[in-house]
Amino acid sequence: MVKLGVLVSGSGSNLHAIIDNFEGGRLDARIQIIVSNLSGVYALERARKHGIPSLVLLHKGLKREEFDQKLVEVLKAHDVELVVLAGFMRIVTPVLLRAFPMRVMNIHPALLPAFPGTHVWQAEVDYGVKFAGCTVHFVDEGTDTGPIIIQAVVPVYDEDTADTLNARILKQEHKIFSQAIQLYAEGRIKIQGRRVLTPGHPQAADEFMINPAVTEKRSAG
Ligand code: GAR
């Protein structure tokens, strides 16, 4: 059973999916502590409802490194092995990464390396991409640049807004984050440079999606 520390800043729907999978016996990872850098967020309410220890560590007034040092102390005090950033809207520093080398995972709502950073759904709609998705990756010192563990792809439709696309991607986030954690728990993750391999675990079928769809020729007018 892997011991998780989950860092949050918001509603915590990814946190909820992880809790749900653990409670349903589908995930060999137990949450030791949930830390929020903001007070009053719904993720804390979810922690309370499920009887999981949580605390607020406000970043305001602290240098990034000072904040991360406090974070490390809390995570170590709770015997955390794997740190999971579940909608944690802070850039982490080497202080955290050195304390948990290749043991910090982040979920990002885009198909990295496209659309790093924030406000990605509007950027994707505006750019006109036909596919979007989400990525779980190990965190390195860049922003959304670390080795990719798992990705899910969704189509982008003509009528999409940032909100509808966000909702479609979020559904997949809830699946792939737990899968990434489970792969870690099973010891299946092998890191080779930038590449994260999962020997012995099934990979996606050699299929494709095309959007808009390829159809038979229709007669004009
Ligand atoms: C998720 O879409 C996650 O991918 C994103 O924040 C949302 C949190 O939702 N994370 C980032 O953008 C990190 N750069 P949640 O609080 O409902 O899990």
- Give start-end ranges of low-pLDDT stretches: none
Strand content: 15-25%
Radius of gyration, in Å, reads: 18 Å
Bound compounds, each kind once, are: glycinamide ribonucleotide
Please provide the ordered H/E string of secondary-structure elements: EHEHEHEHEHEEHEE
Shape assignment: globular
Mean pLDDT: 97
Helix percentage range? 25-40%
Please give the alpha-carbon distance between the first and last residues: 62 Å
Helix and strand content put the structural class at alpha/beta
Largest sheet: 7 strands, mixed
**Helix segment count?**
6
**Largest sheet: spatial strand order:** 3-2-1-4-5-6-7
Helices and strands in order:
Elements: E1 2-8, H1 13-23, E2 29-36, H2 42-49, E3 54-56, H3 64-77, E4 82-85, H4 94-99, E5 104-108, H5 120-127, E6 131-138, E7 148-155, H6 162-185, E8 190-192, E9 195-197
Helix pairs in contact: 1-6, 5-6
The chain binds glycinamide ribonucleotide (GAR).
Glycinamide ribonucleotide binds at residues 10-14, 86-87, 107-109, 118, 170, 173.
